[in-house]
What does this fold into?
Amino acid sequence: MPVLNSAVSLMDEGFSRTGRRVLGYALRWNEPAHIAKGSSTFVEIFRSGAFAKSIANKAVKLCLEHDTDSVIASQSNGTLCLVEDLVGLRIDATIADSIDGDEAMAAVRQRSKTGLSISFGSAVCEWQNFNGTRTRSITNCDLVEVSICRNPAYGSSEIVAGAMRINRFLSAIDLSAERNRRLFEAERRLVKYRYEIGSVHDAAIITGRGGSIF
It folds into this structure.
């Protein structure tokens, strides 16, 4: 029986099909990116729901460094899953067994490429000025592709591969979901409490037990 290097086996599941899984966030909601287009600079943020239409259309591809000739996963063949969760746009992909796919997997495992970037068009957005800084909030767009890249515009993006990093990533999602569930439950109880207090107060006024309302 071969002896496996434990450090490698924990971080790298090998190049089997199941070992070619990557997970990450292409961006997080309301996290700013500083965009430069020619002489124009502005801040860009995405709102939750901006990609719902594109996800439903199932035509988004995963590429390497925005090279549309280097497709390494896609919604159309079931190797790319896109989800809008409470945090942002999450991807879960099985990378193609190809030269480009091997390059992508090596880059993610070795952490030479740790981010994701997106290409999109037909943006529906709102422009605002904050302390002299132009900011556009995108509420809807046509998402064309997501790319594994070295220098993403959104610093909050991330991508991971390998058993240990994937498990850590999934655990963080579970913790975030549990935290949000508890916040929602606390808000629900607060609303219920305020409603009950208000109902008691109104009943006291109607019956004359609440004292003067003037």
Notes: The longest helix spans residues 163-207. DSSP finds four helices and ten strands in the chain. The first strand starts at residue 21 and ends at 28.
